[in-house]
Design brief:
The complex is a heterodimer.
Chain A (H helix, E strand, L loop, with lengths): L1 E6 L2 E6 L6 H7 L18 E4 L2 E4 L11 E4 L12 H9 L8 H14 L5 H7 L11 H18 L1
Parallel strand pairs in A: 1-5
Antiparallel strand pairs in A: 1-2, 3-4, 3-5
Helix pairs in contact in A: 2-5
Chain B lengths: L6 E3 L4 H10 L4 E4 L3 H6 L6 E4 L8 E4 L2 E5 L4 H6 L1 H7 L2 H7 L4 H4 L4 H6 L6 H8 L3 E6 L2 E6 H5 L8 E8 L4 E7 L9 E10 L2 E10 L6 E2 L1 H7 L8 H12 L10 H20 L2
Parallel strand pairs in B: 1-3, 2-3
Antiparallel strand pairs in B: 4-5, 5-8, 6-7, 6-8, 9-10, 10-11, 11-12
Helix pairs in contact in B: 10-11, 11-12
The chains are: A alpha+beta, B alpha+beta.
Chain lengths: 156, 276
């Protein structure tokens, strides 16, 4: 079957298998920032934004998102410049091996759009679905605070 | 990927969905949020029937009821203004403790009930509010309670179209216990109390993930009827839950551990509800 997907504002018409997951389709289309890890809804590495909301692409049927808008990390940077959230992760040391960072970045983007000035408790709750085996989370929590600050500054 | 899927159906009406399902009963699976089906990784389904195309995701007030489309995701449901106005922080906070933000955007309220899994926190909360289900099956639309739905054999299982909540002057509490933040519950407890002049006039005690389906515990409900909501009540209810708990053991916890957990969670909910 054929579906139409808008990924990072670019329209794709793609042939899929009816039982195929969004993760596989996105990677086939070249969006390699979308990572396969647990493949069982446990780690958050495959997180993408579906109509602005974070979802797990490893358990989302591609056929179910026909005509929908998807955002991946590739869509964040403009003209080689990092997005403020990516800058914040870099500055705070929130990325070590980097494998979980794509999913984490998108979760943070959606979270800060809804809650631009969160406290630590809210940040911890927001990141509960993104596992990181390297950082111990402290630097990622710091990164969210810093990203929030940067995004607020940008709006001023 | 589910390897043997031949067709992904997007019905435009509930009749069409039910007909496709009936035509391919043994090889078809209904999809609400899709999380359970995707995780099955089964080779059996050949037909997937996506109910999201039915647009059953609104929340409406109808007299003293609130009618909720079964396909609403639990994140939208918990944040819905009508739900917040009528249930305060109950669903807002309870569902915030379930799974992760990603999963809450995917899991639907109807799908959580339809899956008939013992660990469903959503089912426990809905039973505490005595919600009912609007279903569509071989006899058309029917209004049935959740326990009745849970006991229907698979071949008689209808499609859940709406959840019907009552507007009522109860106070509610919910707690769950898990090994990690977004693991399934080892045990969960939902409580509803109708209080008049500090006296418990009616109550609902629901315990789920026992690991059997969530169910009400009438011995506990009767045991606290007409008692005062004071600092003795949490302890009395805790002992009643300990005495009357029924459940089992599985890889998550033993029945003894669940019994202790359920009684402690009961005590904590009532302490919070009573402000003691």
């Amino acid at each position: 079957m054929k579906i139409k997907l808008t990924v990072n504002k670019k329209i794709h018409e793609v042939q899929i298998d009816p039982g195929e997951m969004l993760l596989d389709v996105l990677r086939r289309l070249g969006y390699k920032s979308v990572r396969r890890s647990c493949d069982s809804a446990s780690c958050g590495n495959c997180t993408v934004l579906l109509e602005g909301k974070p979802i797990l692409s490893c358990i989302t049927f591609a056929a179910s998102v026909d005509n929908c808008s998807i955002e991946t990390v590739e869509g964040l940077s403009e003209k080689e410049e990092l997005h403020p959230i990516q800058e914040a992760i870099l500055e705070a040391g929130g990325s070590q091996c980097g494998y979980c960072i794509s999913g984490l970045t998108l979760t943070i983007k959606s979270f800060l759009a809804e809650n631009p000035d969160p406290d630590d408790k809210e940040i911890k709750k927001a990141l509960v679905g993104n596992l990181c085996r390297c950082t111990g989370y402290e630097s990622q929590i710091k990164a969210v605070r810093l990203a929030a600050e940067k995004l607020r500054d940008e709006k001023r | 990927m589910l390897l043997n899927v031949k067709a992904y159906h997007k019905p435009r009406s509930i009749d069409e969905a039910f007909n496709i399902w009936s035509d391919h009963k043994d090889e078809a699976v209904l999809i609400a949020g899709g999380t359970n089906v995707a995780l099955m990784k089964s080779h059996i389904p050949k037909h997937l029937i996506d109910l999201k195309s039915l647009a059953l995701n609104d929340v409406k007030e109808k007299g003293n009821k609130i009618v909720v489309g079964a396909m609403i995701d639990i994140e939208s449901f918990r944040k819905n203004q009508i739900i917040r106005k009528n249930f305060g922080d109950f669903f807002f906070k309870s569902f915030d403790d379930i799974a992760s933000p990603q999963l809450r955007n995917m899991i639907t309220i109807g799908g959580s009930v339809a899956a008939k899994v013992g660990w469903s926190d959503v089912t426990t909360c809905l039973l505490a509010t005595e919600s009912r289900l609007m279903t569509f099956g071989i006899n058309g639309y029917q209004n049935i309670n959740i326990t009745e739905f849970n006991h229907l054999p698979r071949d008689k299982k209808p499609i859940i179209t709406h959840i019907i909540l009552n507007k009522e002057d109860f106070i509610y509490g919910f707690r769950r216990f898990t090994k990690s933040a977004f693991d399934i519950s080892m045990v969960n407890v939902g409580i509803a109390l109708k209080i008049e002049s500090d006296i418990v006039k009616r109550s609902r005690f629901v315990i789920g993930s026992r690991p059997q389906m969530p169910d009400r515990f009438s011995d506990v409900e009767e045991g606290i009827e007409n008692l005062k909501l004071d600092d003795n009540l949490p302890n009395i209810a805790r002992n009643l839950v300990f005495e009357h708990f029924t459940g089992g053991s599985n890889y998550l916890a033993s029945v003894e551990y669940r019994r202790h957990l359920a009684s402690v969670l009961t005590e904590r909910i009532l302490t919070e509800l009573g402000g003691v």
